Amino acid sequence: MAATKIIDAPRNGHEMAPLNTRARGDGTHGVTIVLTAPQRNSVQSVDIPGNEPERAAWSGKMQFFLSIIGYSVGLGNIWRFPYLCQQNGGGAFLIPFMVMLILEGIPLFLIELGIGQRMRLGALGVWNTIHPWLGGIGISSCIVTLFVALYYNVIITWVFFYLFNSFRYPLPWSSCPLNGTGFELEECAKSSETTYFWYRTTLDAAPSMDEPGGLKWWIVLCLMLSWTIVFFIVMKGIQSSGKVVYFTSLFPYIVLTIFFIRGITLRGAGAGLMHMYTPKVEKLLEPTVWLDAATQVFYSFGLAFGSLIAFGSYNTPKNNCVRDVLLVSVCNAVTAIYASVVIFAILGFKATVNVDRCIASNTEILVKNKLLGLNDTQGYEQAMSLLNGTELTRLQLSECSLAHELDNAAEGTGLAFIVFTQAIVELPGAPFWAVLFFTMLLSLGLGSQIGILEGMLCTLFDIDIIKRVKKQHVTGVVCLFCFIVGFIFCTGAGEYWLKMFDSFAGTIGLVVVALMEMIAVIFIYGHERFTEDIFQMTGYRPGRYWQWTWRYIGPVIMVCILVSSVVFMVIRNPTYGAWNADLGMIEQKSYPNWVMGIALSMILAGVLPMPIVFLMRSFQCLKVDLDIHQGSIRRNETTASTKEMIDNDDDDEEDDENDFSGPALGGHVKTQSDFSDDDEEDKPMTMRMMMMRPTTTTKTSNVLNVPTSRKKNYKKDAYDV
């Protein structure tokens, strides 16, 4: 074979981290480069002669933008942000929210999207490429994403159940069912119609996690439907999911606009909006308000799941990712505020209706006790003011306060399935509005679930072994596994398990992963290299704002979120809200010890891969993860620094004796004994042996060895294979 000499070129800051380096006294490093045959892509791609198959790409800019919007704008914008605004100072909460958006959300968003676009790899491949010791970041991200995907699809399951029941008239949660004697069921009478339908009809809630009861067949069927739909959407990657995002991303805005037009015309809408957005500036002095804002920004963007890295890797190398980050960030914040206006306009209407109903009930009691004239509608306030606390209790009179009604707002499932459904019942043509509302929740949930699974599957396909299997088969196995594990959410304790997963599985692990991502890109890969990469891709060089937030402000905020999360988890005894059927209300219970053991295991499963991989590779214990390592660091598009070293003329058939495939393809790395006079049996070389052995240049092997002399710099030789 003829050797071609290659002139050393200046490093551009994006080269692959060397697998094996041994420091020399003169500052140079010995490098062993293993030539492996090109491997087929895991996703549908277009072959370009002379190059590796290109990575799958978006069909257009709009498809990418809508996919990011559908992933980032999720259920949290509907049922979490309005609650935080109300609890943390109303309109004043927008100040810490915007500050954290600028200092934390946007910088970390650009890191994930930019590094994915630059490397054109999933989460596992990106961190292995930056440095093999960082490979655990991708594994941790994949594990945490799996936990979140497990319970996130259960929310879609509940939405399906409510959506199917929305086609009934009257709505099944509009009235309490009757017992055999014609009276309302006691459990429903003590709570409310919507609360009873949620806890008894939908969940058939158990009294505690220790008594989960059996599987609820209607939930199991809806869960199977959810995972089936998700499978068909993501089974071909962005080739299939990219078409669905046109609906899942745009439809929620159409529904929100319809609800907005209807909501602001309702009686009491102004009171709801005033209650929500009236600024309470004194709240800004409380540290928890700023912590809530930082946490909301972090989770609303879907950071650290690996999904943004995957989405960025499907972009063209010259895509303006900085512009994309700014547009998506603004759209995310505006959507959260817009959804809050819609939610509280309708909740203001519900509160007004409840106050009117309360006043009518009190008036009837006052008239019955001859404390108010039959037609005296003006004397109600005066009559109530003359009664003391004892008389109010004796007469069973209720406090009819609009502020009190509005303060009873809920978050999460309580807002979507209890509070908002009660407001829908009061609207004319309630089934129509119920169908619209739950279809909107369905599209929001599916949009986020598509992104979550895409990030996890993209990470899996960075592994060489899985890369050889069809994407449809791998996706099917993942969905089937998640469906089977999801049975724990189909019992009477299903909601309790979901809240436990939400509190432990996707909190500390994600924050640690995000912090390590910042450290890896800015301090290991280098902020100067990353800045140059952004400039080469977009023509825009990040300035002081980006440098300060990447290097100082962002990591400090992430550390504060991490420390506060751990502290709150330790000092506050973790509890969950269990349904008490006898009282018709929620009561707080402590998690059983065995459940806390599971929660701790999930936290450790999401964090430990990072130190484990670091220790394995730093101490060169690489036998186990050799195939994963070599498969994950292979670039889908060869960089300028390595492209000229490897000739991809793979059309000619080679004899078995000239097989240069590496261990990841089933071959082996040849040793010096392979070329000795003795006919010894070939022995596979482990990565540890490759790192520890002194190297010499051998032109007939598939290993490019570097001279061992300490006085001479090495020369790169490339061989036609």
Automatic annotation (TrEMBL):
Gene Ontology cellular component terms for the protein in this record: plasma membrane
Topology versus the membrane: Multi-pass membrane protein
SUPFAM superfamilies in the record: SNF-like
Stretches the record annotates as Disordered: 638-721
Residues annotated to bind Na(+): G70, V73, N77, S300, N332, L444, S448
GO biological process: amino acid import across plasma membrane
Bias (Acidic residues): 647-659
Subcellular localization, as worded in the UniProt entry: Membrane
Main location group: membrane
Gene Ontology molecular-function annotations: amino acid:sodium symporter activity; glycine transmembrane transporter activity; L-amino acid transmembrane transporter activity; metal ion binding
The protein, known as: Transporter
Protein source organism: Drosophila mauritiana (Fruit fly)
